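Aim 2 progress update. The chain analyzed this quarter is reproduced below.
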Amino acid sequence: MTFVLNVLHDEYSLLAADRQANVDGPATIKVGSVTIHAQKGATINGYRKMKVSKCGAVAIGVAGTIKEHGYVDNFENVEGVEGSVKAVLDSIQNFFLSPDRSQNFSKPEVMRNEGIATFFDMAASRYFSLLYLYSHLAANTYWFNVASGSAHLLHVGSGSGQFEKAVGLDEINRFIASIKSNPDPRACIDWIKDAFGKVSLVAKGVGKEPEFLLSTRSERAFKSFG
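Predicted structure tokens:
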């Protein structure tokens, strides 16, 4: 279970995701050189759900079955913004066009994979985010961008459905309005941490401690923040 938030601002893009992974048992988990056999499943804290492209200019936050985000491994070996975004879109298309489509319909349950890819577009001189949701049976992608003096708040993952209820729609709108004219991403950190804490109380399996990646107009390569 996962919760991913993206603050898309005229001056920056801030991506946040929880770091809790939940594995149903029995399962074998490998963390570095350590192998763990979990007969009844396990909860792993510190699992990273965000990646930065090889060029550093694109960041992604993913939710769902990680092994079905086939582009994640390719992401670190592709040069440039366009190549990085294409790696995401090509992988989604290949997943959706699976040759096993008749078997896909017979599966009793299909977990939808979700994610956000975000970056600064030099030609347009603004930030963009690509929000995507896909399974073997459906695939949807949405572009978002921000004009001067504006901001968006995007979210995906299992915690996304509980976000408005846990935090409150009025409070979310108040937060967005408050940051539109504030170019400092530090103004977001405490609010986002509080939001993750509230969502974790009602969305089973979502961790309460987010990590952050930040890109700004002056330093467009995404780096850890907060």
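The chain has one domain: 4-23+42-216. The chain is about 30% helix and 35% strand. These observations will guide the mutagenesis experiments scheduled for the next reporting period.
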